[in-house]
Amino acid sequence: MLPIFNTMANSYLLAPPPPRFQHHNANFPQFKYLPRPRHHNPLFIFSSQFAFSPRPPNFAHHSEGSVDVRESQSYQQWDSLTANFSAAANIPFLLLQMPQIILNARNLLAANLTALSAVPWLGMLTSLLGNLSLLSYFAKKREKEAMVVQTLGVVSTYVVLVQLALAETMPLPYFLATSVVVVSGLVLNFLNYFGLLNAGIFGFWEDFITIGGLSVLPQIMWSTFVPYIPNSILPGAAAFVIAVLAVTMARTGKLSEKGVKFVGGISGWTATLLFMWMPVSQMWTNYLNPENMKGLSAFTMLLAMLGNGLMLPRALLIRDFMWFTGSAWATFFYGYGNIACLYLLNIISKEFFLAATVGLVSWIGMAFWKDSAVHGYSSPLTSIRDLVFGS
Question: What angle do CA 237, 155, 277 make, to 5 degrees?
């Protein structure tokens, strides 16, 4: 805990069916689906914001000496270390929303309501819906720790939306509708977890999340660019009709087994795309209202970059292109991208920006160098090839 994953939230960390999310998060990330490491680390499940559900890792590749790289000591050590990096990512993810919440509170108390417009409520809503979708998944799987992380993401993001509603930067009707969904989602999911909810009711909630996520995603994407494009509900309405039709056919047995599985995975995919849209929404807001970036917390952006960046070595190691893409997207476009914007507008110091730049480049370089070394490759480019095309 996708995805300020920020001003957005948790959020930052980010999937294929069925997702194995561990938020988390995130507050544009999440990008949050993580496999459990060989050694049990209770912190490991706290991956927030943007993290993608990895496919089963393909470790069939052998080095030139025809020795399985998994058996080497250097590989085992790096495997354990990357798992710990992913676990450590939970710390920045869990702290992600606090700087923005504190900054918003100060601006509210000072009656500086304009500053809160730097926080795009549409982006925050994408994070909230992503967390709710994942909360439902974990409630069904009875993953208690992951449920707690997603719940923290929902609550922290909702606090920011409350602040935006008080500043009148989020329309009241949208806020009220969001409040109903949040309360209903939390109650139903925890009743289901404790076995106090009828299976039919929870199934109805799952259908609602699927239809809601698929309907909201294209509408949020469209609304981000209004008034530069016509204000229209057509994207959401069309997606709503398609989603209702798909869910109805799946429930009535009109789809093949593959079709039913596809419909069942829609909520995971929409959650992933909602988290990935967070950086786009934030950067567009920065472009339209650069002066309002004073209301954006640089520390929150740094946390987003750190949280997602810590998960990159693990995603690279298990050769999960989807997870790596999601985490890299949040690291570069959401975290570092907003830090760069703050620097260009002279809101943060040159030292802060250079430290973030050098740290990020060094970390990415180290990850690829170490990965190529443990696989016995002569160049990090081979690791990139395996990541994109498979080993």
Answer: 45
Which residue, among 151, 240, 237, has the nearest Cα to 188 in the 3D structure?
151
User: Tens of pLDDT along 78-114?
Assistant: 988 888 887 777 778 778 778 778 888 998 998 888 8
- pLDDT tens digit sequence for 20-69: 333 333 333 333 333 444 433 333 333 333 333 333 444 444 444 445 67
Closest CA to 211 of 253, 176, 249, 239: 239
Per-residue tokens: 289: 């209202």
Name 73's Cβ contacts closer than 8 Å, sequence gap at least 6.
none
Q: Which two structure tokens, joined as six digits, stand for 253?
A: 């047995």
